[in-house]
Amino acid sequence: MSLALAGVKVLDLTRALAGPFCTMTLGDLGADVVKLEPMPTGEMSRQWGPRDKDVTVYFLSVNRNKKGIAVNLRQPEGLALVRRLALASDVVVENFKAGTMENMGLGYEELARERPGIILASISGFGPQGPARSWAGFDQIAQGYSGVMSLNGTAESGPMRTGVAIGDLTSGMWLTTAVLAALFERQRTGRGQHVQTSLLASLMSLLTFQGQRYLSLGQVPEATGNDHPVITPYGTFEAADGPMNLAPATPAMWVKLCSLLGLEALVEDPRFIGNAERTKNRAALKALIEGALSARTRMEWTRIMLDNGIPAGPINDLADVFEDAQVEACNLVQSITHPVVGDLKLVASPMMFSGHPSGETFRSPPPVFGQHTAQVLGDFGLSDDEVARLLDQGAVYQAADEPAAGRA
Hints:
Rossmann fold, 3-stranded antiparallel β-sheet
């Protein structure tokens, strides 16, 4: 059985993280993704460290299931080729600055005149209109602008960014959803459309109850670190060997927690009688809980809590995560052979389908720069003579059969 998007042609003009994350997801779902990179060195993330055998791990993380083509966008022949490929694709994905696609002759209105069914998918930093329209789309800037950073950290630390580029990743996921919806609608209407999202919009979509606190009540939430902003106790606590998370979210769980920790007296203590009181006296309660937790390790307490119906778990670093039995059982890390790196482990797609074993989503490794140029152009209908002419003109680049590590 073929994957859901088998036969859907996607031209990927994106770089860095938000767009490549979207197109990788489409590739995981079976789309035929062509990643077009500018000559002479490829997209910007190829220059970033750290590296594995001189291949940037940043690029490796979000570019599987794509064929790579290298085009000189400064030559008229190169731009003409991009347009030709775009008009032969079902979906074109881009995350250029506002106006760049129009300047390249690849704006939606112009493409749709020749191919009404085309879907153009765009990610910007701050949206297609408004005073910040032209601002560059960098994740940390958007995290601060959206208010997300104000919710992270503590009073002592001040605002904190998340440990991954959550604005980039979220906008990539939202754009994937929009592309799927546009493909579904095209089945009914025969027409494509321009679907868009932004880092700002995507991050604001995550505000949920914190945003609603302001919209409904006028409350401006403050950062509460690892503590839940409205439920106490609920957050991070120190056990004998390090931090763990506890989430006794209901009154019954609170009573059970006190029993398990030998703190039964706290149930009737006026300082902790209700959630509001516990939140007001959060620091004192945390100290009492951690005093009891210091008798056992994180995993010992985790098992005790889970056996008694209280959500709990250790706080793992990435070494813990990638050696974890649950991660292994769920096949969340899979391998594929890369032409330079060799055996390449990647974090697997989180999507699971009963009709497809999870390993099927790894069909090809991230491409070496210009690895599939000749093959892709042939697949799009260019003759051998046309491909040879473009190569001779320097309009495109084809990697050698045995690519050097420095070009990956």
